[in-house]
Amino acid sequence: MKSKRIETVLIHEGYHPSKYEGSLNPPLFQTSTFTFEHALQGERRFAGEEKGYIYSRLGNPTVQILDERMAVLEQGEAALSFASGMAAVSSVLFGLLKTGDHILCSQGIYGCTYGLLQLMKEKYGVSHDFSPMDNEEMLRSQLRPTTRCIYIETPINPTMKIIDLEMVVKIAKEKGIIVVVDNTFSSPYLQQPLTYGCDIVIHSATKYIGGHGDVIAGIVVGKNDFINEIRMTTQKDIGGVISPFDAWLLLRGLKTLHIRMDRHCENAEKVVSFLKKHPQVENVFYPFDPEHPQYGIAKKQMKRGGGVLSFTINGTKEDAQRLMNHLQTIRIAVSLGDAETLIQHPATMTHSVIPQPVRESMGIYDHMLRMSIGLEAWEDICADLDQALNSFKHTKTVQS
Ligand code: LCS
């Protein structure tokens, strides 16, 4: 049969009720271990001579359903779920790299991923550089003979800059470099980097995949060989596995990903047009805004612009904080992809571990705010923003 559409895959892939007493929903195998019928069965399972579960750090049926669904959603061969997005990122990087290797990274990444790169440099001798990856020439000039991995966020957290996946893959393939893409901001519904030839996709499933702000989890998708290697090394031996209950919640969240994402995008588009007209707003950053410098690339590789946007105000850091404090419906919180609209101040929150000069070279300024647009009525989100933006009207120091 022809492969199914994404909306159907989100709901059915990897599960059939007939295998589980007709249960419409995948059962939750909330167990740490699995019993063997006899000693030899245990020996065979450990030796890989017989299929079957052993211990939930090594595999669990609920988790396996999630992995199979995610692999198909990202059009990869296999997937692995983790206890957090950072467990996924670190398991991939520690699995791929060794002392002396070099990572070329998009000029902008989540604060804790930045922290991990620093740790890998200082303690394990894996170096990195940041690159805007704006064009082929620039990208080529920043590759070293030791570059083993190109690590990308697109859209970048929180600047919403876009990296051209097709261009990066073309150059990486010439040099045998592995391309890793953190696809958290788009979810597989809006962007599928493996279809452009990228090698590995990572998600903080905490965000859109879970969708309800009640799970911390991560997922990695890629080729069988790589996923098996990670399964048997950094996942098994470092041990950042997902709990069966969290996998179950993610399976529930995935069923509505398409509907939620469409609504997040529709609401974000409305908020973008509202913010762009507001006199207190300096700049708005959203991939599907025709004025976004990489609008053409975003259009090429994303279905829609997503639910996250950032903006700078005509004011100071204190004005940005005052604005946040005036909000009534919008919640002040990090994370994204939830039903609730969230606002945070990257310079003092998600990206505060990055030293200010580096942060500014990435385009993260003190008068910038990031919003994750939720599923409320867009009119209410805009009204809340409007009253909060007007709160510093008469006190602001306009930036030159
Ligand atoms: N990758 C990206 C792009 C992220 O935004 C995050 C978390 C992670 C990886 C790590 O995932 P976690 O371990 O939290 O599941 N980003 C956050 C943010 O922007 N606000 O709060 C967390």
Bound molecules: ligand LCS
Alpha plus pi helix count: 15
What is the number of domains?
2
Question: Low-confidence runs (pLDDT<50, min 5 residues)?
Answer: 394-400
**What integer is the average pLDDT?**
96
Amount of beta strand: 5-15%
Going across the biggest sheet, name each strand in turn.
1-7-6-5-4-2-3
How big is the Rg? Answer: 22 Å
How would you name the CATH homologous superfamily of the largest domain? Type I PLP-dependent aspartate aminotransferase-like (Major domain)
Question: Which term fits the overall shape?
Answer: globular
Q: Separation of termini? A: 61 Å
What is the CATH C level class of the largest domain, in words? Alpha Beta
Give the helix/strand class. Answer: alpha/beta
Q: Within the CATH hierarchy, at the fold level, what is the topology of the largest domain?
A: Aspartate Aminotransferase, domain 2
**Sheet having the most strands:** 7 strands, mixed
Secondary-structure arrangement, i.e. CATH architecture of the largest domain = 3-Layer(aba) Sandwich
Order of helices and strands: HHHEHEHEHEHEHEEHHHEHEHEEHEH
Tally of strands: 12
Q: What share of the residues lie within helices?
A: 25-40%
